[in-house]
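Changelog-adjacent note: as of this version, every example in the card shows the full chain rather than a window. The one below runs 317 residues end to end.
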Amino acid sequence: MDFVRTPEERFTNLPDFPFEPRYCTLANGLRMHYIEDGPVKGEPVLLLHGQPTWSYLYRSVIPVLAAHGLRAIAPDMIGFGRSDKPPRRTDYSVEAHTEWLSEFITTLALSRVTVVVQDWGGPVGLGSLVRQPARFARVVATNTALHTADTSLAGLLEWACHSTPEGLVVVEPVLLDYQRLTQEVHPFQPSLFVQGATMHDLSLEECDAYDAPFPNERFCAGARQLPLLMGLTPNSACARHNRRILDHLSSAPQPLLTAFSDNDPGTRGWDVVLRSAAPGARRQAHCTISSAGHFVQEDQGPALADVIVGFVGTNPV
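Full-length structure tokens:
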């Protein structure tokens, strides 16, 4: 598969990011980057980002997990961060991202995984759970969505996306505006979207870190394509993918915890949907993380880490 690779010098002197780069080469030749900290024999916690971020998002979460004896692993999705970036948009799909992550998990021989999903980490990470459920022990969901546009979602989501009995689809205009902005902004700057969905001001150096993976337009195919793949109609590929996830969760044994933030209208309501779908969510200490926007790791990373540590401790394998 054809790809471009962001030059390493783009990642020098990243603030608060002391982690050594590690790489996993997939069967198609693409190189997937990840960072890791904590004891090698510790229980693995797989930290998944979404669009338009990368593993830099978890820089304040990882040290807390490692200090509690957990093996924190944060990969970059193909097309993001230090991972290789196919320049053709047609190379990207939700199924492709799920396959790439599943192969990453298999190659690293991960088992008893606690998966933490945020944003697109939900469809991709939970899609991997459907593919190889025996490798997963727990799920932590924070600020993610599994759009299916089903009629049953009417009235449940702050940003509406559901069908009507007449066969129409109701979609919150801001969802469509977000799609449009990801296509129109030039040059592509992830920091604009991250800053727009956090509660505190990012430093210039932090903004540069989020922008680092994309030196020019040739590197942006994956980041621009992903928003267009949202399951905003019932028959879209992503909606079918997410429906399979929700069907699987209805009988999945893994404990599931929701830890959504209090200032993310884009995903508000999906915590309730997930808790209702998964029997593993019953009797869990679901929580709301205060003073955080969509990128809860950026606003309240240590608080999210504490939630993960507590969840792992109260749900032994």
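Structural remarks: Residues 14-314 form a domain with the Rossmann fold fold (CATH 3.40.50.1820).
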